[in-house]
Description:
CATH class of the domain at 47-56 and 309-381: Mainly Beta
Strand order of the largest sheet: 3-12-15-14-13-16
Order of helices and strands: HEEEEEEEHHHEEEEEHEEEEEEEEEEE
Domain Multidrug resistance protein MdtA-like C-terminal permuted SH3: 311-368
Largest sheet: 6 strands, antiparallel, barrel
Structural class: alpha+beta
Mean pLDDT: 90
Low-confidence stretches: none
Strand content: 35-45%
CATH topology of the domain at 47-56 and 309-381: conserved putative lor/sdh protein from methanococcus maripaludis s2 fold
Keywords: Transport
Number of strands: 23
Main location: other
Family: Belongs to the membrane fusion protein (MFP) (TC 8.A.1) family.
InterPro entries: MdtA-like_BSH (IPR058625), MdtA-like_C (IPR058627), RND_pump_MFP (IPR006143)
Amino acid sequence: MDRRRFLQFALALLILLLAVGLSGLIISRKPELKRKPRAPYVPAVKVIKAVPQAHQVEISAYGTVIPLRSGTLSAQVAGQVIYLAPSLITGGHFRAGEVLLRLDPQDYQTALAQAEAELLEARRVLAELEAQSQTAREEWHRLRGDIPVPDLVAKRPQLAAARAKVKAAEAAVMQARVNLARTEIKAPFDGRVIEAKVELGQQVAPGQELARVYEVREVEVAISLSAQDLRWIDVPGITSPQGAKARVVVRPAGVPVVWSGRVVRAAAQLDEKTRLLTVYVRVKSPFSRRPPLLPGLFAEVHLKGHLLKKAFVLPRKALHYSEKGLWQVYVVDKSSRLHIRPVEVARLEPDRAVIVSGLNPGDLVVLSPLSGVTEAMRVKVLP
């Protein structure tokens, strides 16, 4: 029994040794693999050819439509309202010179009649005194010869007082006529009523607000521009005598409506918080079309800027900001080498960059995003 176990153990050991030897033989005769050098990574990039062109600068901004002129109609005299024009309601239209409101004129007609009567009386008194003065002077010269006539004899003080009363009476008549005319309130311009604050039969007092109105001949859009934007457009009194043309786009019912306008002026100072300057774009005849250009509408304004005769207009993604704080682009040469090129950017637009120097016609500018860019690195230009 022991001999049998010994033979089994010896056989197992022999098999193990043969397996180990065979494995070593196989490993020793395995062909050696040669390592190939790793090819350097060459990024593939999309490029665009730089082509100089004339570029019309356009500045876009947003603002609110406001009336050119607006104001308050107020009573200048007291009285009861006896007439209201049909147009004197909120939203009503009126013409320049139209009678919008009339107060009861009876008291003012009476006052005018009294003032005219007092004027006639003052003139009568003055005429009598002038006649008396003439008679007294003639009698004095007949009796006293060339001796100067005393003031009291010639009634000069009385004449001065009478003339003063005539002037006062004339002023009273003029004031009575003005007050009578003020019982009619006329429209100062073609306009619309923002809010009416008076009713027929109402008693009004001097200075009382009757309505708020605005002129419809012209409106303006107030927009805010940066100093960089002002460089490219004409603003009267700031950069040029005549203002830049503008397109004003509004969407009163979701549909864009375009109006033509022009920059007419700028605010007297910059906003202290934003450092922006408010510029006003004027649009004529805002009610000549339907829908009209109503005050309060939010407007998109496109200003026609200066013309750059030779510029490179590239997609914004072609532009990069260097660690030194300078703009630069990546240019690929004929041997597929990349070069870092500093450029001068005249203007940045939402999706474009306008470059005026640093590029040559025909340069291939990289559009693809890259990391770890080095000068003269090799790239592969995609078709």
